Sequence to fold (540 residues):
Amino acid sequence: MDPAAWMQSTLQASRPQAMGALLRYFRDLDAAEEAFQDACLRALRTWPDKGPPRDPTAWLILVGRNAGIDRVRRDSRNQPLPDEAVLSDLDDAEPALAERLDGADYRDDVLRLMFICCHPALPATQQIALALRIVSGIPVKQIARAFLVSEAAMEQRITRAKARVAAAETPFETPGPVERSERVGAVAAMIYLIFNEGYSAGPDDEARRGLAEEAIRLGRLVLRLFSTEPELMGLMALMLLQQARAQARFDAGGGVVLLDSQDRTLWNAGMINEGLALIDKAMRHRKPGAYQVQAAIAALHARAGTPDQTDWAQIDLLYASLERLQPSPVATLNRAVAVSRVRGPEAALEMIQPLETRLSSYFYFHGLKGSLLSQMKRSGEARVAFSKAIALAGSLAEADHIRSQIDLLDSACN
Amino acid sequence: MLYAIFCYNQEDVTTAWSAEHDAQVMADLKAVEDRLAAAGRLGPVARLLPTTAATTLRKGDEPLVIDGPFAETKEQLLGFYVIDCANLDEALETARDLAVANPGLGAYEIRPLQIFRPGGDVGRLG
Fold:
């Protein structure tokens, strides 16, 4: 690997932990960001000559902290800075700090940094933008491209989010167990939001699709810190098992390919193996949660070599427990797909009818209803449902997919 | 003499590599493997999945199952098995059998593999 690429990936990987520690020192996101930037610049200058430090994260934290303190001094007294060799010479201090890096302080630092980004005071769009900027360090320009807004608008969104977070005053003391577990839950939800932004993007939307990979990276980070938390294992497994299908979800023309029709040889075996290993680990804890159940469902799809080997009865049961854990009409809608495979389209239609008022503006409801009706040969009603779905489609690919189902109805009539 | 070479690196860095970057590193390593294979010197090659997928069985009267990798500086890596298991439960069962056969101190870390190449016949020890 060339040294520039190594440095880049090291700085990127060190960022959450370094930013988390610097935020604890400076108690201000902008100050922490500036200090981290300073440390990165010094790293780019000194590492190529002196060689990389044994613990790059510890190095960045110390240099960042010194740089931040110097900035304060310089601003107040306009004093000259000590020269580079003094500032970046950390041979003595590094091992002591490195030993503490694995400690609970640093774990809570990263958690706090991430929790601040998904503070309940922030709307979802601001949470995602702030986390991508602060935790992942993705340039504003790139985030703006993913969300189809101008760089200035995204800059403003992030500035506004920072102001709200500062006003909300997240405590800097070490959190208690209850608070810590609430923070982990909020961070998991934010990571899954980022994942879904990427996962729901169309095949040509490279900028947004990359967010799914970023969410997986953040998920790994949190799981490494809280490695015995079954819901984090579940979240990680869920994201990996879904992302494993990324190459198979669209055809060459950009059209949606449904699970049953996907070329399973295009599924990423490495991601599937990792996802299966994680869901196995999670289930041993016997503390079920919504991510674990959804991951278990994804695992059943992943384990099926062909669509007709899918264990739909088990999927039906898992969706039933998801309905109990996290009641939502969407969970019921998903369960209906499994029910249609196990007990037929009539039973599934009966199950989703009561959801009609609540899901009347939901694309998938009408799509599924149309598909169930067409399986029952009620073409006229199916056509009505499909037309509603097209009107609600979120992307061209979705609309095209429904149109192809209407075409099938037409050819069946002729 | 046969030598095992164990690979250590910072996981938060390696798991953050882009798919292209990862593929490039693997291709570069594969070139080295190919040279070794051509010389008849290459045995099994394995790449482990991240430590977040690891489980550890700590030996004892009641073996203890712990989430995460083995991390105890007083004890050292002394060898490894590659075993086909349907799931984690089966892998743990196997580790328990090993613990019964070799009781006392120590632990078995269970790490699913990402890449496994059995390699050719590289001869015998001794």
